[in-house]
Every structure is written in C-alpha cells, then in structure tokens.
C-alpha cells in the first residue's frame, strides 16, 4: 500500500464512479467499497475496513465519511483506525471552543 497522490486519485476515481451508480446512499455502495478497498486493491484488511465502517457509523453526519477515512488511512499507512479516530478528534476545532468548554465544564460540575 502506498499513500501517494496516484493512490488517492485512484480512490477518488473509483468512488466517484461508484457514487454515480449507487442508489440508496453510502450503505448501498458499501459491498462494492469493501470489494475495492480490501479484495481488489488490498488497501486494508477486513478488520481495518470494519473499524473504519464503525467509526463512520458513530460519526455525526453522512455515512460517506467512510471514503474520507479510507483516504486518510492510505495517507497514514501504518496507523490503526483507533489512532486515526484519535487524531481526528484532537484536530476538531470544536474541542477548543468556548461553548464546548462551558458545556463540558458545567456537565463535570454536576
């Protein structure tokens, strides 16, 4: 697995084409995403794909974040899904916001 620009362009090309034919959202395209990422391109293992899918399911927003997680995995090739999730959480601008600190501070006091 390489994390070069060619690999990311390949990922973007496959998933852009897949999105044109997927009816029913990201979950309808999931088996083909799995086939491409795990069986055909060998970008990740079964376990890594399952971990990425689990992170995508618990993340607020569209389930298509799975594609971004796969891309992030390709660029950070030796990292686990847990390490990637931690990195994404720590980069979150919400984490340092005044509103978040006020809400979490209030929750901690009670």
Account of the protein in words:
The chain has 110 residues and is mainly α. It has 6 helices and no strands. The chain has one domain. Helix 1 packs antiparallel against helix 2, helix 1 (5-21) packs antiparallel against helix 4 (65-75) and helix 3 crosses helix 4 (65-75). The model has no long low-confidence stretch (mean pLDDT 76).
Overall geometry? globular
What percent of residues are in strands?
under 5%
Please give the alpha-carbon distance between the first and last residues. Answer: 48 Å
How large is the count of helical segments? 6
What is the β-strand count?
0
What is the helix fraction of residues, given as a range? over 70%
The radius of gyration over CA amounts to 16 Å
Residue runs with pLDDT of under 50 for 5 or more positions: none
- Give a short account of the largest sheet: none
What is the number of domains?
1
Q: Which series of helices and strands comes N to C?
A: HHHHHH
Average per-residue pLDDT, rounded, comes to: 76
Quickly give the structural class. mainly alpha
Write the layout of secondary structure elements.
Layout: H1 5-21, H2 26-40, H3 46-58, H4 65-75, H5 81-91, H6 98-109
Helix pairs in contact: 1-2, 1-4, 3-4
